[in-house]
Amino acid sequence: MWIADNWKDYEVLDTSSGEKLERWGDYILVRPDPQVIWNTPKSLPGWKKKNGHYHRSTKGGGEWEFFNLPEEWSIQYRDLTFRLKPFSFKHTGLFPEQATNWDWFSDIIKKSDRPLKVLNLFAYTGGATLAAAKAGASVTHVDASKGMVSWAKENAAASGLGDAPIRWLVDDCVKFVEREIRRGNKYDGIIMDPPSYGRGPKGEIWKIEESIYPFIELTTQILSDDAKFFLLNSYTTGLQPAVLSYMINTAVVKKFGGQVEAAEIGLPVTSTGLVLPCGASGRWSK
Question: Are residues 59 and 149 in the same domain?
């Protein structure tokens, strides 16, 4: 398992009864987590003295309850700054477990003997984009949500990357890759963090089990001959590390060589010393 254990401004304090107790900078949040199927005593004071609590509804969705929580605040990871705000369906605008992947590809970018062009697909609020840009890459950031791209730009400005070589694009990721193929554009690294289900700007349907392998095959057409890395993330239960490894081996290694690793990713839990699983990642490098 790859563990995001270099955070100072974030930690999972405890987990119990379908929820996790988290510290985001100076604030404590309680949010649901489907992996937490154990019931242990909620003895830490944060369970009662939280700043925000997302309550799941039995009908789906849910709502936030706040206790002295600002509308927006910031935390840092290494030399990156992220603006946070609780919004729909329990999210804050950041997936802290992804820091283990940021560290991995940042190291590859820094050690490269040339400047790298990186494509970040389903790029959300830009955690991976900022990490790649800070490491020295020029980055193309693509997400179907205009609001998420705006949020990512704010994170870039807060991180001192307002003038970094980043292209910000609001677009359907599949349509964008198809156009890049026609244009003959190539990338030295590709990052993708696809949703289980989603819609593009014009209502395009995305179902990961049906769409992900054809999309991986499609993106291999815009990998450069001397590409350095490919990263695929999944929060979908059915896509285990071995499945990610199999897809990347079949689509990428057959064309480019290199090697694949895949594993669960997770976050350390302070109260127990155990690790909370947070999905899986597949990594190709050469």
Answer: no
Contact 123, 166 (CB under 8 A): no
Residue ending a domain, choose from 32, 63, 84: 84
Coil/strand/helix, residue 254: helix
Dist. CA 269–CA 19, nearest whole Å: 12
Q: Mutual orientation of helices 208-219 and 173-183 as an angle, nearest 10°?
A: 20
CATH number, residue 41 = 2.60.40.1180
Distance CA 223, CA 192 (A): 13
Same domain (yes/no): 79, 100: no
pLDDT grade, residue 256 (50/70/90)?
Answer: very high
Residue 158 one-letter amino acid: A
Residue 203 and residue 138 in one domain: yes
50 with 187, same domain: the answer is no
Structure tokens at 237: 């239960």
Reported as type and span, the H/E element at residue 173 is: helix 173-183
User: What domain range is 40 assigned to?
Assistant: 2-84
Q: Are 119 and 167 in contact (CB under 8 A)?
A: no
Q: What pairing do the DSSP bridges indicate for beta strands 189-192 and 229-234?
A: parallel
Residue 259 bridge partners (DSSP)? 285
Residue 193 has pLDDT above 80, yes or no: yes
Mean pLDDT on 239-266: 96
Q: What is the 3-state secondary structure (H, E, C) of 77-134?
A: ECCEEEEECCCCCCCCCCCHHHHHHHHHHHHHHHHCCCCCEEEEECCCCCHHHHHHHH
- State the CATH number of the domain containing residue 234: 3.40.50.150
| Per-residue pLDDT tens digits for 57-86 | 888 789 999 999 999 999 999 999 999 999
